């Protein structure tokens, strides 16, 4: 090697060292002091060792080149690598450079990595730590966001997109994550808001700290923006790895079978004792999921939001599936606005990425009341029906107990396109519960009777006998079979195996118009 070549290589190493130093030692120290890792440390932890390949480390802000100090990389690290041997594309915002704010070139870099992920068919991961639009770059920053949003939408349903919020996510920085499939937040150190506390105080006079305005608790319990919340950055990145393990790399693929699949498909007698014989008594549907799914394979999504419905990924004999289940423990498992939004979004994700849907149903109906009506339960509730009817993946329903009215129809009924509907023997499938039905049908007769209570009870019992059982629905073909609860796991595994090659075409259209 000649002397000049040697010097060039030394120069390259020097610049790359500078790149690795981000916004400098002092700011890295500040980052650590807040309990946060740097962008590079996060990538290093997340990806398989030595698999990260960085792209565009020399990108620099044009604004800064013209106006003073500039940083190679422009506050975001992008590239590709592997997680559990599978390819992923990644970007991680570097808070030590202008607070991870998004300027023109920073935006271009993210857009470029999104294009690579979308065109090459691998998941895209965003590690967000950003003060939003880089104020000093003006409209160029806003344009940068637009470039990213467009690509989030373009590749939505093409490759899984996951965002982990690991610091502030302020202003424009919130919209890209929310356009992706999943948001994971870290307790105490991550915050999401369109308008930060300082601006809020100026504009509305409200004085709220970041945690109350947009902390992980708020977004995982109240707004529903965050799908998973973890106590530390390490746990959040581990959750991301687990989440990815259920997904294929892109929408033309099936998820890989789990290697440590549970082979047993034996009877589960424990399922005989979970649903109480009193049809009004509550129970925890997660106990049923645990018995039906491979041991320890259930990963709940949106655990703390709209608890009256439970959604999550699991495996059955190694195959990844999505579970959608009413939760009688909360609001008697009734469907409200938040539950409808939660379920519909989950169903659509599963359909995008070829994950069969298993619905465990025990629902009294859509929750009545003026609040729900005025806030739009009609259009929100319709999202569930829309999402199920639209989905072409294998769709199986098991009616555990109650299946009443519109909620029965919306929750993957046969009419809506379920492939197979099973019911347990104690299932009650009817337009409404026996008590309400008796009042409406025989109200006058009951009121005029010498002993109204006795007559009412007789009417309720006659109604239950005639309508509130699984056999009327089975006789009409709306239930394919009535099964003993203990058979459920075996029967679901058989159904999934037989439906593995399911293919369903839909009329050609640009896209549907889901009620939003
Ligand atoms: C440029 C920014 C910045 C921004 C932070 N910095 N936000 N630089 N543009 N948006 C810089 C700071 O100047 C500072 O630089 C460094 O990042 C760290 O910021 P601090 O304020 O010292 O850190 P901290 O106290 O931890 O507070 C972080 C913060 C706060 C909560 C993010 O900086 C903040 O509130 N920033 C503004 C957030 C905001 O309102 N963004 C909305 C922008 S408008 P030095 O050199 O000192 O290290 C927007 C609309 C887009 O995004 C809409 C698109 C659709």
What report would you give on this structure?
With 516 residues, the protein is of the alpha/beta class. It folds into 3 domains: 3-244, 2-enoyl-CoA Hydratase, Chain A, domain 1; 269-432 and 469-498, 2-enoyl-CoA Hydratase, Chain A, domain 1, CATH 3.90.226.10; 434-467, no CATH class. The protein has 20 helices and 16 strands. It has helices at 3-20, 25-33, 39-46, 62-67, 104-120, 139-154, 175-179, 197-204, 210-214, 216-221, 233-245, 285-292, 337-352, 370-375, 377-390, 405-410, 434-448, 452-466, 470-475, 488-498, and strands at 53-55, 76-83, 86-93, 124-130, 161-170, 182-186, 191-193, 228-230, 299-301, 309-316, 319-326, 357-363, 395-404, 420-423, 428-430, 481-482. Strands 1, 2, 3, 4, 5, 6, 7 and 8 form an 8-stranded mixed sheet that branches. Strands 9, 10, 11, 12, 13, 14, 15 and 16 form an 8-stranded mixed sheet that branches. A hairpin with a 2-residue loop joins strand 2 and strand 3 (86-93). Helix 5 packs parallel to helix 6 (139-154), helix 13 runs parallel beside helix 15 (377-390) and helix 17 runs antiparallel to helix 18 (452-466). The radius of gyration is 27 Å and the shape is elongated. The N and C termini lie far apart (64 Å). The mean pLDDT is 94. Bound molecules: hexanoyl-coenzyme A (HXC). Residues 27, 98-99, 101, 131-135, 142, 145, 168, 170-172, 175, 196, 198-199 line the site of hexanoyl-coenzyme A. InterPro entries: AccD/PCCB, AcCoA_carboxyl_beta, Acetyl_CoA_COase_Trfase_b_su, ClpP/crotonase-like_dom_sf, COA_CT_C, COA_CT_N. Pfam families: Carboxyl_trans.
């Amino acid at each position: 090697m000649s002397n000049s070549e040697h010097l060039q290589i030394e120069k390259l190493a020097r610049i790359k060292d500078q790149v690795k130093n981000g916004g400098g030692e002092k700011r890295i120290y500040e980052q650590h002091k807040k309990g946060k890792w740097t962008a590079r440390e996060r990538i290093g932890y997340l990806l398989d060792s030595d698999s990260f390949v960085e792209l565009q480390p020399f990108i620099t802000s044009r604004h800064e080149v013209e106006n003073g100090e500039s940083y190679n990389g422009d506050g975001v690290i992008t590239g590709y690598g592997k997680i559990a041997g599978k390819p992923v594309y990644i970007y991680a915002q570097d808070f030590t450079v202008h607070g991870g704010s998004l300027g023109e070139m920073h935006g271009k870099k993210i857009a470029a990595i999104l294009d690579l992920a979308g065109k090459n068919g691998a998941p895209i991961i965003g590690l967000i730590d950003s003060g939003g639009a880089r104020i000093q770059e003006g409209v160029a920053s806003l344009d940068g966001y637009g470039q990213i949003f467009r690509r989030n939408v373009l590749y939505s349903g093409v490759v899984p997109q996951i965002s982990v919020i690991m610091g502030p996510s302020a202003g424009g920085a919130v919209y890209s994550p929310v356009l992706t499939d999943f948001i994971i937040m870290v307790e105490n150190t991550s915050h999401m808001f369109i308008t930060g506390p300082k601006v809020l105080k100026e504009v509305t006079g409200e004085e709220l700290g970041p945690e109350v305005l947009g902390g992980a608790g708020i977004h995982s319990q109240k707004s529903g923006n965050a799908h998973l919340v973890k106590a530390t950055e390490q746990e959040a990145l581990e959750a991301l790895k687990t989440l990815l393990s259920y997904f294929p790399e892109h929408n033309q693929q099936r998820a890989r079978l789990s290697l440590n699949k549970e082979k047993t498909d034996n009877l589960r007698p424990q399922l005989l004792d979970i649903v109480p014989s009193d049809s009004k008594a509550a129970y925890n549907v997660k106990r049923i999921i645990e018995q039906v799914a491979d041991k320890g394979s259930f990963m709940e999504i949106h655990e703390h939001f709209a608890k009256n419905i439970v959604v999550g990924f699991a495996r059955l004999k190694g195959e990844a599936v999505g579970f959608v289940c009413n939760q009688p423990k909360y609001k008697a498992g009734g469907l409200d606005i938040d539950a409808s939004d939660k379920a519909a979004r989950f169903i659509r994700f599963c359909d995008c990425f070829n994950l069969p849907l298993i619905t465990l149903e025990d629902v009294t109906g859509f929750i009545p009341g003026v609040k729900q009506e005025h806030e739009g339960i009609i259009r929100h509730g319709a999202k569930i029906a829309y999402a199920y009817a639209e989905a072409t993946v294998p769709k199986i329903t098991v009616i555990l107990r109650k299946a009443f009215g519109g909620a029965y129809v919306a929750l993957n009924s046969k009419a809506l396109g379920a492939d197979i509907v099973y019911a347990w023997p104690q299932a009650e499938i009817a337009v409404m519960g026996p008590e309400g039905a008796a009042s409406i049908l025989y109200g006058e007769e009951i009121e005029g009777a010498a002993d109204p209570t006795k007559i009412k009870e007789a009417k309720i019992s006659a109604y239950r006998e005639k309508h509130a059982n699984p056999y009327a629905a089975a006789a009409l073909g709306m239930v394919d079979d009535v099964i003993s609860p203990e058979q459920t796991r075996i029967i679901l595994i058989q159904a999934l195996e037989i439906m593995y090659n399911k293919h369903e075409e839909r009329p050609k259209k640009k896209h549907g118009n889901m009620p939003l």
